[in-house]
Amino acid sequence: MSTDAPRLTDEDLALLRRPLHGFLTTAAGPVPPQPRPVWFEAAPDTVQLFTGPDSVKVRRLRRDPLASLVVAAPAGEREGWVAVAGDVTVEPDGAHDLAARLAARYWDLEDYARAADLAAILAEDQVRLVIHLREVRRYAS
Prior knowledge:
Blueprint: H1 10-16, E1 22-26, E2 36-38, E3 41-42, E4 46-51, H2 56-63, E5 66-72, E6 80-91, H3 95-106, H4 112-123, E7 127-140
């Protein structure tokens, strides 16, 4: 049995670097988990995203710092998905830089409306959520 920390493979990262939505689930206590679609950025041993500091996600993570994220290939492609789970840290820095990188990946920032949407995000307080991988599961057909 390996004691190495779980890591995302090159194949995992190829899927995760596409502009796909991830579905984030946080522990909710007696409330059933309620996944939410999110933008994210993956590295071999972490996945990060941004959110408002007073969001439900952050409140839940402060109570129980565990989360999972699932990303699937879109319809019309061969089935494939990656699921990660781990401990989450709430970082006060780096969220605006992350938001700008992700907006460029998900949106056409030449579009005035999308550029204005990004400006609105950058005008708000944001925190960076970092999932430190404890488990990685995957499927590729």
